[in-house]
Amino acid sequence: MIVSLILNYSVVAQGLSEAPAYQQGRNLKLDDLFNKVKKGYKDGLPLDKIKGSPYLSENFTRGDVYYETNPIGKLYMRYNIFSDEIEIKKNTKHQEYAALIKSTLINCVINDQKLIYGSFKPINKIAENGYLISLTNPSKAHVLYKRIKKIFRDRGVEASTSLSKASPAKFSTFISYYILTEDSQEAKELPRKSKKLYLLFPEQDHSSISNFIKGQKINLKKEKDLIQLFNFINNLNSKN
After folding, report:
1. Looking at the record's lineage, which domain of life comes first (predicted)?
2. Three-state secondary structure of 81-99
3. What integer is the mean pLDDT of 97-101?
4. Does the CA dihedral 34-39-40-46 come out positive or negative?
5. Are 210 and 194 a contacting pair, CB within 8 Å?
6. Is residue 142 a contact partner of residue 201, using CB atoms and an 8 Å limit?
7. Which 3 state secondary structure label does DSSP give 80?
8. I need a surface site. Which of 16, 77, 187, 228 has the fewest CB within 10 A?
């Protein structure tokens, strides 16, 4: 049932996609770069020599797959942040792996982290589609999500003097946070200033939110503080 419903098992051997891109929902530009990196980018740059990692976690972990809210099975998975896809396989003995079909109806839980595929809008940019990690209860009115992005930076800067070092190739990590409300299909990036943050919530809650941020000394740049804030907001009785 799982294979027929959500997976494309045209095998992705050693990271090489043999299936059409529309079947796997893969980004060909990212695939091409990632394959070069894994095989040895620019004449001898193996993946283990690159600083950082393209994955949320290197190892495949047995996790749960859901169709909407219905559990439909367990698979070994890992999140490839660089290519923004969930890599999957039936068991840890198999070297071949495939990609989880990208759909808003399909989500998964890996290492107790829930990943959904959906639409999100960065500040001052057009909306995109990709994986988000939920940080608060998805059943609440306001859900906090984390978006992680990995960018590959080549060895572009050589040593200028004998005393300086060349810049190594690396995967740079960028993290942003989003809010998804119960009346929206698109997550919006959280602003870093509290005055703009209030606008994302009901007007009658602004005073309570302001007092909580000041009283608890909430730092909007810290993940644990954002989780604390969202849990507080979701407990407010906004309807009254």
Report:
1. Bacteria
2. CCCCEEEEECCCCCCCEEE
3. 86
4. positive
5. yes
6. yes
7. strand
8. 16
Tokens of 216: 């608890």
Contact 238, 204 (CB under 8 A): yes
Bridge partner residues of 190 (DSSP): none
CA distance 47 to 39: 8
Q: What percent of the chain shows pLDDT beyond 90? A: 52
At residue 137, the 3 state secondary structure works out as coil
**pLDDT attached to residue 166:** 65
Q: Which residue reads 């290492």 in tokens?
A: 111
List all residues 6 or more positions away from 32 whose beta carbon is below 8 Å from its beta carbon.
none
Identify the residue whose tokens are 């740059």. 45
Looking at 5-19, 21-35, 163-177, which range is the least confident one?
A: 5-19
pLDDT of residue 8: 47
d(CA 141, CA 13): 41
Model confidence, pTM = 0.81
Enumerate the domain spans of the chain. Answer: 2-190, 191-240
